[in-house]
């Protein structure tokens, strides 16, 4: 779809120009600040979350929200559902996309695995921002083992 | 997963994603650069990068015929490219005075759909500089050098948004992209 192409190209330019490694991992390796790309994704995720149909805002269960991210949000943004969702039922979820749209143009397999995180920062922020609008604080990180598959780990922060 | 979810993305949501992301980008650049001209230049540069790649996608998607004049090229940008990517069709006023200067008039600019007005202290910001860069980059890939700037901007109080395209060479032996 043409509109997605525009977003994908814009995303590529943004990664090329704006990505910077997290300058201050903090004690124990925990991220203390959002990178620029993540914070942009967060803003967009928040606004996307606000524009969702009203019935989706009535979630009670955490798991329902995550299912919603895997289905509705992922379809709206990436034209496909998340391929799998796993949880330890204690607030940690792993969302796996076997052919993540923003990684497909890069490569297939193990080449560029080190470069891949840059292309996931915005989307991590997006997930975080949408969750925020739906009432959940979260920490989202992404992992790539072989392109174009990737996993997003979502840890819901308890108040 | 038992819940009923939407069947597929509404086209509106896709466009929203691009527009919202662009808004976040402009906001970020305004944080990084104090001067409006620097933000404009940066957006134009990013747009150029996008345009050089977008033109391939455009040519693959549309079945544009070979162009024989700058006027034709401008009409295709307005009536085909803008339509495909932004869902709007700028008008191209008849230009008798010059053979290589054209305008695209946008009554509604989708990029600034969610922008009410320019932020305070940013009166020289050309919010949609990306578009100028995209057009310039795309044209350059088909060997048409051009200057592309904003002549009018609704966000600055003008009645319409007008993009000016000035082709830099007189029509002579030009190389056009062939349709396969």
Automatic annotation (TrEMBL), chain A:
<dbReference type="InterPro" id="IPR037992">
    <property type="entry name" value="TRAPPC6/Trs33"/>
</dbReference>
<dbReference type="Pfam" id="PF04051">
    <property type="entry name" value="TRAPP"/>
</dbReference>
<dbReference type="InterPro" id="IPR024096">
    <property type="entry name" value="NO_sig/Golgi_transp_ligand-bd"/>
</dbReference>
<keyword id="KW-0256">Endoplasmic reticulum</keyword>
<keyword id="KW-0333">Golgi apparatus</keyword>
<protein>
    <recommendedName>
        <fullName>Trafficking protein particle complex subunit 6A</fullName>
    </recommendedName>
</protein>
<dbReference type="GO" id="GO:0005801">
    <property type="term" value="C:cis-Golgi network"/>
</dbReference>
<keyword id="KW-0813">Transport</keyword>
<dbReference type="GO" id="GO:0006888">
    <property type="term" value="P:endoplasmic reticulum to Golgi vesicle-mediated transport"/>
</dbReference>
<keyword id="KW-0931">ER-Golgi transport</keyword>
<dbReference type="InterPro" id="IPR007194">
    <property type="entry name" value="TRAPP_component"/>
</dbReference>
<keyword id="KW-0597">Phosphoprotein</keyword>
<dbReference type="GO" id="GO:0005802">
    <property type="term" value="C:trans-Golgi network"/>
</dbReference>
<dbReference type="GO" id="GO:0030008">
    <property type="term" value="C:TRAPP complex"/>
</dbReference>
<comment type="subunit">
    <text>Part of the multisubunit transport protein particle (TRAPP) complex. Heterodimer with TRAPPC3. The heterodimer TRAPPC3-TRAPPC6A interacts with TRAPPC2L. Interacts with TRAPPC2L.</text>
</comment>
<comment type="similarity">
    <text>Belongs to the TRAPP small subunits family. BET3 subfamily.</text>
</comment>
<dbReference type="GO" id="GO:0005783">
    <property type="term" value="C:endoplasmic reticulum"/>
</dbReference>
<comment type="function">
    <text>May play a role in vesicular transport during the biogenesis of melanosomes.</text>
</comment>
UniProtKB/TrEMBL annotation, chain B:
<dbReference type="GO" id="GO:0048193">
    <property type="term" value="P:Golgi vesicle transport"/>
</dbReference>
<keyword id="KW-0813">Transport</keyword>
<keyword id="KW-0931">ER-Golgi transport</keyword>
<dbReference type="InterPro" id="IPR016721">
    <property type="entry name" value="Bet3"/>
</dbReference>
<dbReference type="GO" id="GO:0030008">
    <property type="term" value="C:TRAPP complex"/>
</dbReference>
<comment type="function">
    <text>May play a role in vesicular transport from endoplasmic reticulum to Golgi.</text>
</comment>
<protein>
    <recommendedName>
        <fullName>Trafficking protein particle complex subunit</fullName>
    </recommendedName>
</protein>
<dbReference type="InterPro" id="IPR007194">
    <property type="entry name" value="TRAPP_component"/>
</dbReference>
<dbReference type="GO" id="GO:0005794">
    <property type="term" value="C:Golgi apparatus"/>
</dbReference>
<keyword id="KW-0333">Golgi apparatus</keyword>
<dbReference type="Pfam" id="PF04051">
    <property type="entry name" value="TRAPP"/>
</dbReference>
<keyword id="KW-0449">Lipoprotein</keyword>
<comment type="similarity">
    <text>Belongs to the TRAPP small subunits family. BET3 subfamily.</text>
</comment>
<keyword id="KW-0256">Endoplasmic reticulum</keyword>
<keyword id="KW-0564">Palmitate</keyword>
<dbReference type="GO" id="GO:0005783">
    <property type="term" value="C:endoplasmic reticulum"/>
</dbReference>
<dbReference type="InterPro" id="IPR024096">
    <property type="entry name" value="NO_sig/Golgi_transp_ligand-bd"/>
</dbReference>
<comment type="subunit">
    <text>Homodimer. Component of the multisubunit TRAPP (transport protein particle) complex, which includes at least TRAPPC2, TRAPPC2L, TRAPPC3, TRAPPC3L, TRAPPC4, TRAPPC5, TRAPPC8, TRAPPC9, TRAPPC10, TRAPPC11 and TRAPPC12.</text>
</comment>
